[in-house]
Structure formats: structure tokens, C-alpha cells
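Collaborator request, handled under Task 6.
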Amino acid sequence: MYSKEESAKIRKEFWVSYGKSFPRKWVLYNTRIKDFSFKFVADRKKAEVTLDIESSDSIQRELLFDQLLSLKKILETEFLAEVIFDKDYYLENGKLISRIYVVHTTKFSINNKDTWSDCYAFFNETMHQFELFWYEYQDYIEQAVVK
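C-alpha cells returned to the collaborator:
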């Protein structure tokens, strides 16, 4: 078991090492849609690449999720076969969001450096595919945004 300080140091080392291994500017929060962002998730038990719809406006969140859901077959067949759609995803803090994500299926723990390189490769390839999908269908997805 690690102290809070040790855990924070390991997490920082993980992310810095990833950034150095794959130096690239990702879309992440730069979608131009409020509360709509791509994320890398890594903790003691799992790693994921996610597209989170975090709007507190449930109607806006549902409209965006449904717009993406209409593209599910395309996303699965052309970009990410293992993608999961979860309309009602609860974060650890209890916040309700909608999440579209891919789980790293190889054994992983942020505390085990031997698992990092596989995770980095997963992050790089999966986020790349998510971004290709985003660039291809961005205009269509943005149609769901209430202005």
C-alpha cells in the first residue's frame, strides 16, 4: 500500500512518461462543445479512453448521447470495435454523465510500471481512432448542441 504522496508521485511519473513516449497534442477538451471531452483514465485497476458528456443539463446530455448513438455502428465497424456506450454512467464522486469508452483489456495497474508500455500503446491507438471518428463526424455531432 502506498501513501498519498507516493501514489501521487507514481501517477505523475506515469503521465509524464506517457507524454514523453507519445508527444502529441490530442483533442481532449478542445471539442468546442461545452462539457464534451475525450479523456485518458488510469488507476490501480483499469485504463480507459473515454468520450464524456458531462452536461448538467440532462436534455443536452441526452441529445448529444443520442446523436453519438446514431453513429454507433460506424464507430464500431470503422474505428473502435470494442466501444461501450453508457448513457447513465456514475463517476466515483456520484456525478451522472454519459460515457462512450474503450477499456484496456490487458492486466494493468498504474502502480505496476511493467504494465505501463502496453497501456501507453493502447492509449495512443485508441485515442487516435476516437479522434479520427471525431474529425469525420464532428459537424454531425455538433448538430445536437442546443445553442
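The cover message to the collaborator said: "The mean pLDDT is 94. The chain has one domain: 33-142. Please let us know whether this matches your experimental observations."
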